[in-house]
């Protein structure tokens, strides 16, 4: 039987209905929507296991939400959620499951992928990680010269870095203060140099994380680390006590020189950007301990269960996805800001950048057709209140509509209460100011000089979601990450794209490989690029030929570009 092609989302009647709602609400302010519905905040607030989403300060009403939910059902979001939990091969272009939810399944749950219940395997690795983390934390694991480990250096990039680094920072208050956990990702040699500064190799454990174990940045950094370790400790045998690997590729791990007894595995059905609670989180687990790690996994699982079971109209990830689509496709918003009011969440926006932009930065749908609507937004952000003194000017008075997620906590992790009161006063003030602005009449009535009134007025109607939890802890972090994972997945389903491949990163890698030969070989292949690239390559080679190593503390040779 011939399979029916999926209807492009913009050809569905629900899309046309949304366009009509957009026209109906044009010019209707949040002030008016709040005035007309005194119960609006409670109507548009949802709590899930202590995490609250207030989405009332959005340019929506009940009809819009109804129409958005209709679109979700029409595009089969509920069926796709089930397909993910059933371990179906929803990553169609790579013909594999995308079953990161299995990583957080409870020990007695079943999750079947390709005919096998994978939960026992997942817990086997978690147990191995737990035992290893405990040996490191207790000082039972000794380095080559007999010293306990004090430094853990995670080497990985993309999903093999951003998750662990974000979570280690988010949960640093829960970390063992006796351990120094650092992260190396960039192939820029300065990254490894600065990460290793001051570390004693005899007390350092390297965790090399790479799903494929072929990523050039990671392997280059790992080789450099191994050379430094062997030089310092004087024997290749030291590698066994100071290097462990996290990968799906045992062959390449062995090829690199790490025994598979020092390898923690995961599986091809875990995407790199969806992997933080797999073995990819080993450095994090060493930092915060297996119990805190398990509590984070509980948070993931709580959100997974909600996502699977709640009706779409009351489903937090689905609501975030639908509201995002509303701005992306019906208000011409091109970006989405993530604004955590927590210094500990400083890397959360960067983490979500990969999650969202690598997943939904696609322009071809699952049927191979060009999509005709805008897909994933540009995701960016910084913690508040710092951002307020930098880019919020544009959020309040600029010409771009930037939907924002404000993320905050009722109680501080640490620090004096006064700081937290001030932090959250700013959080609430910002979402209020963005939503309701300050009209020209109000500004004039406050006695502002007439010519300054337009400059000092705020149009308002700048939409925000508020996410509020009790306190930032491992459970809440798990909830938040799972929330965004499922939001991104839902949007992919709505737009009809596959959120689980990333072919878009390949071309640059191929070209870099070739240009590397041109930059580094004595007799390089003839440059075969465009005029601009050829001349940049040649300028680099000229400078490299004259390169002088900087003296410690001295100036760099700046012959190439000055
Ligand atoms: O874990 P690996 O295989 O080293 O890949 C690192 C990252 O590189 C990417 O493949 C992109 O180049 C990401 O998707 C991935 O998270």
TrEMBL record:
It catalyses: alpha-D-glucose 6-phosphate = beta-D-fructose 6-phosphate. The active site is at residues 358, 389, 509. Residues 520-562 are annotated as: Disordered. Its EC number is 5.3.1.9. Pathway: Carbohydrate degradation; glycolysis; D-glyceraldehyde 3-phosphate and glycerone phosphate from D-glucose: step 2/4; Carbohydrate biosynthesis; gluconeogenesis. Pfam families: PGI. One of its GO terms (molecular function) is glucose-6-phosphate isomerase activity. It is found in: Cytoplasm. Keywords: Cytoplasm, Gluconeogenesis, Glycolysis, Isomerase. InterPro entries: G6P_Isomerase, G6P_Isomerase_C, Phosphoglucose_isomerase_CS, SIS_dom_sf, SIS_PGI_1, SIS_PGI_2. Residues 552-562 have a biased composition (Basic and acidic residues). The keyword Cytoplasm applies. The keyword Isomerase applies. Belongs to the GPI family. Catalyzes the reversible isomerization of glucose-6-phosphate to fructose-6-phosphate. This is Glucose-6-phosphate isomerase. It comes from Rhodococcus pseudokoreensis. The gene is pgi.
